[in-house]
Design goal:
By secondary structure, the chain is mostly helical. Helix content is 66%, strand content 0%.
Length: 218
């Protein structure tokens, strides 16, 4: 006599839930993010400037020219970004370009006005490099996540990430190191060395937190 087969439970395939649609940032949220990011970046610039350090990107180029000519950093930073808005408009869209222009203008004003509202004492270059780099990186991350940037190299880095999948942090790190090496002509080598620490700190913050697919910007 054949033993009865044990009953098998029917398995119902699990259908994954559809992804939750992203909720776009409001204009108020974007404005608050631009102000927050620019404030953090301006403090980072103040720390680096107080220790006579540099940083990367258009801010770094503005530092180099500032040390060579004594012109205001904010005005130099604004002028250096002017040629890049065409690329931003063509490749990244109108909203990105408008936010980037607003961020560049706001940061330029904050940077030039900051010495009148905040005075810093002597700073150890290692602390200025790490704290300043972190503030710059976090501030830029805030701008990136609201589809803005500080223009210049930031525009190129975001475009290459969107187009080819290259991480924005790594692209910016490579270009920043080139800028810092070029600064040896106007800045003493020890300051350039500490500035490289600031640039690495900045870009590590971006590389770890701004990966494609990790955060959906809207």
């Amino acid at each position: 006599m054949t033993a009865p087969r044990p009953a098998t439970a029917s398995v119902t395939p699990t259908i994954p839930a559809p992804p939750t649609p992203a909720v776009p940032h409001t204009l108020v949220e974007d404005a608050a993010a631009l102000f927050t990011g620019c404030t953090l970046i301006s403090v980072g610039i103040a720390l680096c400037s107080g220790a006579k350090l540099l940083t990367g990107g258009m801010v770094g180029l503005a530092f180099v020219l500032h040390y060579a000519t004594d012109l205001p950093i904010g005005q130099l930073f604004f002028a250096l970004n002017l040629p890049f808005y065409w690329l931003a408009w063509k490749k990244m869209g109108r909203a990105f370009t408008v936010k980037t222009f607003a961020a560049v203008l706001l940061l330029s004003l904050m940077t030039d006005l900051q010495p009148h509202v905040m005075q810093l004492g002597p700073l150890h270059p290692l602390y200025a490099a790490i704290a300043g780099g972190l503030l710059l990186g976090v501030g830029m991350l805030v701008l990136f996540r609201h589809r803005g940037s500080l223009g210049g190299i930031g525009i190129a880095a975001l475009y290459l990430q969107d187009r080819y999948g290259w991480r924005a942090g790594k692209v910016q790190m490579a270009l920043d190191c080139l800028i810092l090496l070029a600064a040896c002509a106007t800045v003493e080598p020890s300051r350039v060395g500490w500035s490289i620490v600031a640039a690495i700190t900045l870009n590590l913050a971006l590389t770890m937190n701004h990966r494609p697919g990790r955060y959906q910007v809207v």
